[in-house]
Amino acid sequence: MADRTEVVLDQAQVKKAVQALQAFLKNKSTSDFSLLDDTQTISLLFTLWKIPKQAQTIRIPLPHGQRSDTDEICLFTRDEPNMTSEQTQRFYKKLLEERGVKNVSEIIPYKVLRTEYKPYEAKRRLLGNFDMFFSDDRIRRLLPSHLGKHFYERKKEPLCVNLQSKHLARDIQRTIQGTTLKVTNKGCCCMARVGHSGMTAAEVTENIEAAVRTVMAKIRMKGSVMKLIHIKSQTSVALPIYTSDLSHLSVDKKANTQAQAPKKEGATAKKPAKKKQTKDKKQVDAAAEGKAEKGQKKKVQEEEEEEIPQLVPIETPSKKRKVEKPLKKKQLKKAPRPAAAKKGAKAQSKLTQKADSKVKRKAPKVK
């Protein structure tokens, strides 16, 4: 990219850091008596000035391979039309033999991956049986949902290969002996494997130089990119091999000021134009106000000249007002009883009369 500062490594300093790291790993291996897994990976830790806007995967070819010939490699292929899974396996084995590829130990079609390696235990077994995985670039988007997160946590996700390429053997060999750098847009640090403790210091330093060159050439960022570069293993402290200069910060500031200067000039050029517009508006408003005042004065003068005659009221002989007599209070009439109440009262009166007559009849006669 344009306007990018170059990263120049001090070869002697890098070699000293590699030798110190290898000495530390040897002392640790002898103290722990680790006989099985004696070699440890050596990685580069890149620290960027800014967090990238887009995620990116950079393939780095290395001059000295970091994998042995005994590593087990698995290849995931697509399902060929009008063929069973066994026929597709035979087809791709024959294709690899014709192209001169001898490193692939097993071929698994996509249909077999979906059916036989669906359980969790089968996926874990597949992950432990192989050291590296390749996939046909035509099915790369279908694999993550079937493989699971463990492949990506252990950094054993399959690497894409174009099986239709004419230089298939060279491409596979480069990817096996090379490495990859994953630049994420979630942080400013990324790591790439460049060697192991069984390699010599000269081989590791050459791999480091090649990796830094390819990363600086392929990374999608402008301006000054690299802030720090460290070398470390899985269990060691990070040793610095490159620290960037702060001189580029002043250059960036100058570039920003130069970019902002024309903007300010354009803004200053716009201001006088705005002032002129405001002046013109003020003049127009003042002229309109003067006309309005003149018109109002003319109207007042015309009103003063035309005097309206005042109307005089005519006096009439006063008459005595009649004193109003107070109104007599109307007597309040009693409200009539309802018909139901009258009937009830009549019925009660009749009952009382009958009772009295009965009492009179039963009374004994006095002789």
TrEMBL record:
Pfam families the record matches: Ribosomal_L1
One MF term in the entry's GO annotations: RNA binding
Region span, Disordered: 255-367
Record keyword Ubl conjugation present: yes
InterPro entries in alphabetical order: eL8/uL1-like, Ribosomal_uL1-like, Ribosomal_uL1/biogenesis, Ribosomal_uL1_3-a/b-sand
Cellular compartments annotated: Nucleus, Nucleolus
Compositionally biased intervals (Basic residues): 319-336
A cellular-component GO term for this protein: nucleolus
Segments of skewed composition (Low complexity): 337-350
Coiled coil: none
Main subcellular location: nucleus
Role, per record: Regulates cellular senescence through inhibition of PTEN translation. Acts as a pro-apoptotic regulator in response to DNA damage.
Family statement drawn from the similarity comment of this UniProt entry: Belongs to the universal ribosomal protein uL1 family. Highly divergent.
Entry protein name: Ribosomal L1 domain-containing protein 1
